[in-house]
Specification:
The structure is a homotrimer. The first copy, chain A, is α/β, with parallel strands linked by helices. Chain A has an eleven-stranded parallel sheet, with no helix packed on it. The first copy, chain A, has a ten-stranded parallel sheet with strand order 8-11-14-17-20-25-28-31-34-37, with no helix packed on it. In chain A, strand 21 (188-191) and strand 22 (194-197) form a beta hairpin.
Chain lengths: 346, 346, 346
């Protein structure tokens, strides 16, 4: 994949504090995988398993760790964290597109909203009264921001993000298309007339450097706020219910749902398709395997799992039949114990 | 959380038929939780477990049940359903924002659509030919309504709702951002050329007082209509497939998927992350635990479950290995039975 | 459901190569189910189980297979694939609405985009620089297409689809409302500062005759492209992560999530609510049961399952308790084996 500007290997190494081995003036104009990189591109090796591919790569340079220092004669960057180094190098080669400040004439901006002169407001976007849009903010086409929404400096909204009234997004956070922040939580009381809606009067507060994937939803708090702390990364199609708090630098993979009032600590890693019931406390440093269900609070860091990998259908159906018959097998086992006891006593 | 208007405790009690104990003129200007309420705010106690918090609350008034009548010296509302009473009180303090009737000049409304004079049509909204928009309807920015869509009186659409042609929404129903109603169901027939699309010519019909959460999708029927009856509440990111029927006052939590042609009765409670296969009949009054799978029709009210809570990874992996070995254990158990039989016969 | 035009049974039979039995001039003006069809409508029988309904139907004609040839005296179409025949007949009766070529004045189209004269660009749609829009393309209201997006001939976008820069959609593909194609994949590297974003510089490439359901998301590739091959059908609310490849004519039901870099073969059938971990290779012709988890590559066609159907809550809780106690039961079973061995040796 070709970048718009070329950089010398030396310049790229500087972005991640890596050491250059070989020709530091090698010009790099793109990135590629070990297998598919073209001349002029830089690639990376993070897993020694893939060392074999290294000898065949057509890349012009490689990022790798000290242990693989001599695994290739190509110009290279030696880094103690080659993957993070690759991230920095790729950021240099593929920066965010330059923002063109200004408000597109088709946008509808309430006169009481305060928009920084350096912000870019895309076509068809709607911004409510009292909103505050910081320096260098990019709002893509078709977004809708309710009253008094605050976007701090450097926030990026891709097309068609909706933020309900009163929510606040920390600096440099990125929201992808279809994200809905601040919709009403699922709160109602039952009486004889049916379900009575409980007004959801809290907000959603998003910290700095958060990224939220496409079509993910975060509900506003019922009374207090729903909070996503700094550095959190949420994948696509995640549902975060009202009153949750997600701790700093926690990452959550796609299709996961967190029920209301659950608090997740910092530096957790939650897999995809996970469910958590409400009102839990998950401590810092917890990993939840994909497709697992959490029904109790967790007080010890570690890995938690309840998922079952597939088997050929017939094998699984036999296992399942035995699982359901377990109470009978257990009864039978107990009967055998007694019979043996009798035999021993005879 | 502060409201825009203050009310006396007496006025608030009237909204839910509660009894005031203490100073009925206490002015309330907001709501708060037991722990975080500020002076001037009203809070509520629905669970005797939290009675301890009552002595420390800074709230100016409390809603509680008769059994907790004397648990606090604060001015209070006694109700036989304190949670529903809180809902009514909060609705009084935080009413829906007043609607400003009119059609925003940036909206694109087909001349054959009939829009009530009391309706509010937000910026960038698009309304197709033959649509009918009732009294007091609020349509937020960026919504798209296809041809002949009908919104009955008092419907509220948050920003960026899409309703395909011909669908109908009952009075006072609320649709949150990103909802898509009436997209084509997943219907196709296989022939030698690949998959042949089956036209989806039914509609989606939504009853009165329904609420549908952000990014939830309800597909139109294949031939007949998909129907959501009155008082149903759907959380975020739910998928309701073509030809389903969801009975009155049933609630469904987030991330649940209901396959095609399944009918769910009234007053059911379906948890989050649930799956139901197609063509089922679920009777009234069924509760499905979160993260469970329903594969057969249900004819008896009650609670149904198949979810497995997580354990520490190593514990679960041992359990899983034993589960998969079950057929062998069962074989061994049967062999032991026979051996014991032999021993007894000796 | 009534169509806009009527057709003779003969004309309809021609769409699917079926044989007419009975009055070939019977006029058909709509479709209905066996139970609810009205006079003038055509219905179909694909499952001999429903033969009883056939005698009561009020339909004016029926599509059925040769084996049911004499099961009704009604005018009928005999087909060796009655369901596909119904699809073709219904397509004839309910064609896509005619496209009115032109660009709505409220759309914002970059002057460097190339739009075919026969394309229809709906209100409020935004099209970026360098985009190419083919013949007969329909773009509904409120869509956003990034720079250099290519829509080949006959593509249909329902309202509010977002396609990020550089993605390409093959001829005749259909994208439903809320679809987001080409958002950044969930890629980041950890260093001492937190998570470092890895630029996602690949694209999404969609083949011919693909259909993608409402609110489904497909992420762009990290370096290479994410690819959906021809004839693939994706239901609603599916998440396809970066670098995946979905093979031709594979169908995936709603709420399923496929993790990054997984490749699924052609002609697979993936159920709803399925999860797949990343970096897998699934061969052609695999069926995955709904609600199952795939954690390993699959090299043999067949059906794979790990889902557990619900039971009454108390029954399941007993089973679950026994499941968790399995390691103890297994220990006990082994102890019994030894005791029996001792008894035998006595």
């Amino acid at each position: 994949m070709e970048a718009t500007h070329s950089y010398s290997l030396q310049d790229l190494a500087a972005t991640c504090g890596g050491e250059v081995v070989g020709d530091a003036h090698t010009l790099i104009r793109g990135v590629g995988t070990l297998e598919l990189a073209q001349p002029g591109e830089i690639t990376f090796l993070t897993n020694t398993l893939y060392r074999d591919l290294l000898s065949q790569t057509r890349a012009s340079a490689v990022i790798l760790s000290a242990v693989d220092r001599n695994a290739t004669p190509l110009p290279r960057i030696i880094s103690d964290n080659p993957y993070a180094c690759y991230a920095r190098v790729a950021q240099q080669l593929f920066p965010f597109p330059r923002i063109v400040p200004g408000i597109h004439p088709s946008a509808v901006v309430d006169p009481t909203a305060r928009i920084s002169a350096s912000a870019s407001i895309g076509p068809q976007t709607v911004i409510g009264g009292g909103a505050i849009i910081g320096e260098g903010v990019m709002i893509g086409p078709g977004c809708v921001l309710g009253e008094n929404v605050v976007l701090e400096d450097g926030v990026r909204l891709y097309p068609r993000v909706v933020i309900y009234a009163g929510c606040r997004i920390g600096p440099r956070s990125i929201l992808h298309s279809g994200v809905v922040l601040g919709a009403d939580g699922f709160g109602m009381a039952r009486d004889q007339s049916g379900w009575v809606k409980i007004p959801q009067v809290g907000r959603v507060l998003i910290g700095a450097d958060v990224e939220i994937g496409a079509n993910t939803t975060v509900d506003r708090g019922t009374i207090e706020d729903t909070i996503i702390e700094e550095g959190v990364k949420l994948d696509n199609q995640i549902q975060i219910a009202h009153n949750c708090r997600i701790g700093a630098h926690t990452v959550i993979a796609g299709c996961t749902g967190i029920s209301g009032s659950t608090r997740i600590g910092s530096n957790c890693r939650i897999g995809g398709g996970v469910g958590m019931v409400g009102h839990l406390d998950i401590c810092d440093g917890v990993t939840v395997s994909g497709f697992s269900l959490i029904t109790k609070s967790i007080t010890q860091p570690g890995v938690y799992t309840s998922s079952i990998p597939s088997q050929p259908h017939r094998t699984w159906m036999e296992t399942l039949a035995n699982l359901r018959a377990l109470p009978q097998w257990v009864k039978k086992l107990r009967a055998l114990e007694q019979e043996i006891q009798k035999l021993k006593e005879e």
